[in-house]
Write a structure and sequence with these properties.
Radius of gyration: 26 Å
Structural class: mainly alpha
Strand order of the largest sheet: 1-2-3
Order of helices and strands: HHHHHEEE
Distance between the termini: 31 Å
Helix content: 55-70%
Strand content: 5-15%
Largest sheet: 3 strands, antiparallel
């Protein structure tokens, strides 16, 4: 189960980052370029809005939304897990800040632009208002996507498995207590440091037992 959650986290993190990069491009320079085109920018934007519906954008758009919503549910069901807050926060940020904003604001603006007559004075006024409002909400989508991607990546780093395996130099692994059911105050934990097994007791100095050395 943990492996499936980690795979879903990676998918959502990468997908959110990709969409965030796309939205950033529109906010940073594409909308400015379309504005400078004047009336021709209306035609270009309408063309983009039609083509994107038949592109790989749509599976990624809905796939990351469903995945992020699923991570919210997973996180809410396991709030005791270290990464649960990042799953919930990232999923809520993405679903509300990207999906809901798109459906409530950007899509209606796109639909209204389809009916604009670019040669008319009214059409150009609508185009100017469209550029301002659409770009504003696109800023929100950009920040939401990149913020969600960052939270999901932190969630991956908070994996209870990966957090105990720090690389080839130092391997820490939680093992069952040697004396779980035995009387007395002693509590022992097993470690493997640089390939050498060790046993630590809370009432005695750290004792290394070179019982196994990794090949």
């Amino acid at each position: 189960m943990q492996t499936l959650i980690t795979v879903l986290l990676w998918f959502c993190a990468l997908g959110c980052a990709l969409l965030g990069g796309l939205y950033f491009a529109f906010s940073a320079f594409i909308m400015t370029a379309l504005r400078d085109m004047g009336a021709a920018g209306v035609t270009a934007m309408n063309s983009i809005n039609r083509v994107i519906l038949r592109s790989w954008f749509m599976p990624l758009f809905f796939g990351t939304t469903l995945g992020s919503a699923g991570l919210v549910v997973v996180g809410a069901m396991g709030l005791h897990e270290p990464r649960a807050p990042y799953l919930v926060a990232g999923g809520v940020l993405y679903v509300l800040g990207m999906f809901v904003v798109t459906m409530l604001f950007n899509v209606p603006l796109n639909n209204a632009l389809q009916n604009v007559t670019q040669e008319s004075r009214t059409g150009m006024a609508i185009w100017g208002d469209y550029l301002r409002r659409w770009t504003l909400w696109n800023h929100v989508r950009t920040v939401s996507c990149l913020g969600a991607a960052a939270l999901f990546i932190i969630g991956i780093g908070s994996d209870p498995i990966s957090s105990w395996q720090k690389g080839p130099g130092l391997h820490l692994s939680r093992e069952s207590s040697i004396l779980d059911n035995s009387p007395g105050p002693s509590f022992y934990r097993g470690y493997s440091v640089c390939g050498i097994s060790a046993i630590e007791s809370n009432d005695s100095p750290l004792a290394f037992a070179a019982s196994s050395i990794a090949a």
